[in-house]
Write a structure and sequence with these properties.
about 20% helix, 5-stranded antiparallel beta sheet, transmembrane, alpha+beta, transmembrane helix, membrane
């Protein structure tokens, strides 16, 4: 007797699978699920900025204008400096020539015996009065001094000279004081001199000596003794 086959104990039926494709899994169908071709939208490409104005190959490179102005300023400054230096040099030369000319004129005038205070043109002063000869100023306060013995004459004390010459040169001083009595008769003379030269701006007291008594003089004249 044959036992009927139990359908639940049958081996499951697996349909045969096709071998895998060497080109990989198929992509999505271009027709979509409905079988109709899917609409294709154009894709946007890369966006480029708008092109600027074309630059001429003969245009000056950027910044050339500023460089030109800088060069102009530098050249102008150099020219100005040269002009200032040249002008200063000319000024110094002119001043030097003027100073030399003034010094020569003053030196020549000192040999003029008729100048004020010259040997032939003495100036009249009071005893102790301030006066000036050849750019040397003599302060007030000088005085007559009696001799210390019977053999000497009257002298002058406290005569101080300050060199204020315009040419700023040193000066050696020698003065002659003439004491005049009545009827323009000369009574006596006192000579004063510096101890060497007096530098410009310096003050020195002069050494004086006389050979007569001059106390009765009515007036006093003084002049450079050279």
């Amino acid at each position: 007797m044959t036992t009927p086959e139990d359908p639940t104990q049958r081996a499951p039926h697996n349909p045969a699978q096709p071998p895998p494709s060497p080109y990989g899994a198929p992509g999505p169908s271009p027709y979509g699920a409905s079988g109709q071709p899917a609409q294709q939208w154009p894709q946007a490409g890369p966006v480029y900025p708008p092109a600027g104005p074309a630059q001429s190959p003969y245009s000056p490179p950027p910044g050339s204008g500023k460089s030109g102005r800088t060069v102009t300023i530098v050249v102008g400054a150099v020219v100005l400096a040269i002009l200032l230096v040249c002008g200063g040099t000319v000024t110094l030369v002119v001043l030097g020539i003027k100073n030399v000319s003034d010094a020569v004129d003053e030196s020549i005038s000192e040999f003029d015996t008729n100048r004020p205070g010259g040997r032939d043109n003495p100036i009249e002063v009071e005893i102790g009065e301030e006066f000036e000869i050849d750019g040397v100023s003599y302060a007030a306060g000088w005085r007559l001094e009696a001799p210390q013995n019977e053999y000497d004459g009257d002298s002058i004390a406290g005569l101080r000279g300050t060199n204020e010459r315009d040419d700023e040169s040193s000066e050696s001083v020698s003065l002659s004081f003439t004491f005049i009595g009545a009827d323009d008769v000369e009574i006596g003379e006192v000579r004063c001199r510096s101890d060497g030269t007096i530098s410009h701006g310096n003050t020195e007291e002069l050494d004086c000596d006389g050979n007569k008594r001059v106390g009765g003089a009515e007036r006093v004249e003084v002049a450079a003794s050279y």
